[in-house]
């Protein structure tokens, strides 16, 4: 039985990091600028802690200055907004990121709106979202940006293909469906109220799954030869990480598939570095846009 080609996000992320080195050097030599990223984590969610630690490590690896600001779960929203105001004014930081999810008493919307769009390296601010939708230069949200980059680096053409996205979150499903459409795919966006999900997903040349539920996609959902991008990160009862796709069953049907772990996650982190370097280049007047 043939097996799908693995899209190795871990090694692609290493490539992205290597490519950033020359841009970071140029910033330093031509403008005396070292890119900087401030990451705010509110509370002690163990998964968020792992992601933020990884982001800080990535920054260190490529030579980006970073600061990890830890705030207690009970931290008042007003105080978080003041921290953002301070970072908005601090020229050492070109990017500001507030790790999501936030505790229930804090409005993610108010927090995201408070970050200056030119420092919004998560690409979540409405100004960046709006620019992305109309195809203007903007910070793209890191997971959708990473997915598009994985397709490009795998030599998978998108134009004219039928892409089906499962999940309509603001972070992944909605933006990736827009980016795929801008790359000339015909896009179907499925969600929790979609009737007969398999009837849609079986028509996908490119299937992107971002639901957050283990094994929602099995072999019966996949067209032979499809490209399958699994965004889900779920933990099994035994503590193992697994995606939204039944990897073992689907890999014999698909032409390409992303693993979990080691697929979309590492590329999400890599694109955050790209956005941070881009933010620094913009302030230094280097590069395009
Ligand atoms: N402010 C933001 N918050 C959140 C985002 C985001 O883009 N910005 N996305 C997700 C979490 N996320 C980034 O923050 C993220 C998730 C997973 C990974 C990753 O590398 N996963 C590894 C496995 C890591 C593990 O051991 O758990 C993999 O898939 O190989 C990176 C980033 C929600 N919040």
From TrEMBL:
CDD domains: NAD_bind_m-THF_DH_Cyclohyd. This is Bifunctional protein FolD. Catalyzes the oxidation of 5,10-methylenetetrahydrofolate to 5,10-methenyltetrahydrofolate and then the hydrolysis of 5,10-methenyltetrahydrofolate to 10-formyltetrahydrofolate. Keywords: Amino-acid biosynthesis, Histidine biosynthesis, Hydrolase, Methionine biosynthesis, Multifunctional enzyme, NADP, One-carbon metabolism, Oxidoreductase, Purine biosynthesis. Residues 141-283 form the Tetrahydrofolate dehydrogenase/cyclohydrolase NAD(P)-binding domain. The keyword Oxidoreductase applies. Belongs to the tetrahydrofolate dehydrogenase/cyclohydrolase family. Pfam families: THF_DHG_CYH, THF_DHG_CYH_C. NADP(+) binds at residues 167-169, 233. It catalyses: (6R)-5,10-methylene-5,6,7,8-tetrahydrofolate + NADP(+) = (6R)-5,10-methenyltetrahydrofolate + NADPH; (6R)-5,10-methenyltetrahydrofolate + H2O = (6R)-10-formyltetrahydrofolate + H(+). GO terms for molecular function: methenyltetrahydrofolate cyclohydrolase activity; methylenetetrahydrofolate dehydrogenase (NADP+) activity. Pathway: One-carbon metabolism; tetrahydrofolate interconversion. Residues 7-122 form the Tetrahydrofolate dehydrogenase/cyclohydrolase catalytic domain. Its EC number is 1.5.1.5, 3.5.4.9. PANTHER family: C-1-TETRAHYDROFOLATE SYNTHASE, CYTOPLASMIC, C-1-TETRAHYDROFOLATE SYNTHASE, CYTOPLASMIC-RELATED. One of its GO terms (biological process) is tetrahydrofolate interconversion. Homodimer. GO terms for cellular component: cytosol. It comes from Planifilum fulgidum.
